[in-house]
Structure formats: C-alpha cells, structure tokens
Amino acid sequence: METQKFDITSSQSNITWVGKKVTGAHDGTIDLKRGEIVVSDNKLIKGFFIVDTTSIKILDITDPETNAQFAGHLASDDFFSSQQFPEAVLEIISVSDNHVEGNLTIKGITNRIAFDTIVRVENGVLRADARIIIDRTKYDMKFRSGNFFTNLGDTLIYNDFELQVTIIASLRQEILSLV
C-alpha cells in the first residue's frame, strides 16, 4: 500500500460557483489558496483545502459598478464576512469509494458536508473533480432566505449554492536527509 501526498497547484485549480434566486442566477469564481490531498493506492483517503473568500468574483454581471456593488455585498456580513473570515476550510474526514464526507468551515462555523468526487492520478499529477452543494443558511448567510424571512416574493434567494471544483495537485517531493 503506497501512500502519497499531493500539494494543490492553486494556479491550475479552479472553483466556480452558482447562486440561484427566483428570477435567475449569478455565477463566478473563488480562488483556492492551498491544500493537500493524500491518496493510498491511487484512492483518496484525506485532505484539506483552504479557499480565499476575499477572491470572490462575479462573472455574469458586466457593468463594472453593479459588479463591484454585488461583490461588496457577497463580502459583507450578509454573506461571507470576508474581512473577518478571509478563509474557508474543507477538511476531508472520510472517503468511501468516490463519496467524500468532510467538515466545511465558513465564517468560523463548521458543518459536515458530503459529495462525490472523481480522482485520477497519472505521472505524479492528481486531478479531482467534484460538484458540491452548500446550504448557505448553515453558515449564518440568511439574507433573503425563505427559512428566515416571509413575503420575499421574487427577491427570494435559494439557500443552496453550488460549487464546481477542479483540483490539480502535484506529488510532494519529500526531501531525504542523508546522515
């Protein structure tokens, strides 16, 4: 049984997000800062990822002023509280086949999440792809949620948002000391 550690290559990895509301959806990206994936016999066994919440970008709003206003709102306490909590962390705690369970911490609040992933290792490079659905209200993001407010009509924002994650990681080159 060979265990290998991979360091995430942030510049080649990407996370896209989609948030939906009654009248449509918004989408964008968020940057992965760093992380580690551990595999045994080419199967995922554990890992962690750190996401930069200050890097949220909106792709579907092209007007610069409206885009900046929306980005500021996502960074505010209504959503990610990015100034106080500049990082979100996912720690993988168990894996069975391609089903992953982990602890996700956003705004200092940790909840268990589960998702499926596909992991491939070839020539010292790991690629992992996953679609993760997150209930924002579990992380104190209640803005225009039907769970907390009534009579929202067409201003309601759905509680779940989706992340499409692609991780590229390189095999860690352990340095051996000769004594």
TrEMBL record:
InterPro entries: Lipid/polyisoprenoid-bd_YceI, TTHA0802/YceI-like_sf. Residues 5-170 form the Lipid/polyisoprenoid-binding YceI-like domain. Pfam families: YceI. PANTHER family: PROTEIN YCEI. This is YceI family protein. It comes from Pseudochryseolinea flava. The lineage of its organism: Bacteria, Pseudomonadati, Bacteroidota, Cytophagia, Cytophagales.
